[in-house]
Recover the amino acids of this structure.
């Protein structure tokens, strides 16, 4: 296999405030290869979004900071880069789609102005050519009447159309890596399917690697090549998609899969994982899932677990199963 496009090693992202240290991301290792779709899954508070913001250099300052680890993109460590250096990469080589397009789009700028901004910054082209490329990209993402839409403001578009505009903005410079943070959460199932198909098309046409952050395992099953399961700031399972769905190893992954309703089963009550994700300012000493795990032993609460391989390419953070 080729060298990873993105290689994260030992990433720790902490927040300090009010006398507490919040370990939002606590020792994450992650590889993404060119053209690969990697899905990062887990409950709210698991560290998914903070991992993506760490990669993009968009942590809220001064509270949030990377305290350890490296983020290598195309062989270059992004952690030591200053804001000017990151701004040359952000939007050009790495782009991001955020969960809520209405708050991510500028309400006082036209769609065309927002899409061409990245082109004018990163490409040596004039406004006319940039405008033509904006229309071309809007057509690629399935926006009808693209020539008219570039002159509209975000509030004039539906949620699905705004999400397509966000994708067009992210892809207009043909980045090598696209990070999508819950891009289908606020959309109905029909639009969700269209957005996922659009991402597949981007991978096939531009060979774009995609990191898709989601809590929806139905979405993951549709699109993932590889799956990373996060819990309480750590990766608890890491495997190819087919392998993970066929042979989930970590009790947390199994619990997530058990939470998915089955079409061929009748149940009076859907399964839910008992308890909640522990407070990132007060993680327990041992396995962070132990208090919610039916298989937990006393030893699970005494020492932190390391990721270990259970077969080639399949790793779990558990020594009970």
């Amino acid at each position: 296999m080729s060298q990873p496009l993105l290689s994260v090693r030992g990433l720790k992202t902490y927040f300090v405030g009010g006398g507490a240290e919040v370990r939002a991301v606590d020792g994450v290792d992650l590889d993404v290869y060119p053209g690969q779709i990697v899905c990062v899954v887990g409950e709210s508070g698991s560290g998914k979004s903070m991992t993506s913001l760490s990669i993009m250099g968009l942590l809220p300052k001064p509270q949030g900071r990377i305290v350890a680890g490296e983020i290598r993109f195309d062989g270059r460590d992004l952690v030591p880069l200053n804001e000017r250096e990151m701004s040359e990469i952000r939007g050009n080589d790495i782009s991001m789609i955020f969960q809520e397009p209405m708050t991510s789009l500028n309400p006082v700028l036209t769609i065309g102005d927002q899409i061409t901004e990245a082109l004018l910054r990163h490409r040596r082209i004039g406004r006319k050519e940039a405008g033509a490329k904006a229309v071309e990209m809007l057509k690629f993402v399935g926006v009808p009447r693209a020539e008219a839409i570039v002159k509209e403001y975000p509030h004039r578009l539906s949620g699905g159309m705004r999400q397509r505009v966000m994708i067009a903005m992210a892809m207009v410079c043909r980045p090598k890596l696209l990070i999508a943070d819950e891009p289908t959460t606020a959309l109905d199932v029909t639009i969700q399917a269209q957005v996922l198909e659009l991402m597949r098309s981007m991978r096939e046409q531009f060979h774009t690697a995609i990191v898709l952050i989601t809590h929806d395992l139905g979405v993951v099953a549709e699109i993932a090549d590889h799956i990373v399961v996060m819990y309480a700031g750590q990766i608890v399972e890491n495997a190819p998609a087919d392998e993970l769905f066929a042979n989930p190893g970590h009790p947390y992954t199994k619990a997530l899969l058990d939470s998915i309703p089955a079409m061929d089963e009748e149940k009076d009550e859907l399964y839910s994982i008992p308890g909640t994700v522990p407070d990132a300012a007060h993680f327990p000493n041992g396995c962070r899932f132990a208090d919610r795990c039916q298989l937990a032993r006393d030893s699970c609460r005494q020492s932190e677990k390391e990721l270990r391989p259970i077969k080639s390419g399949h790793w779990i953070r558990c020594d009970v199963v």
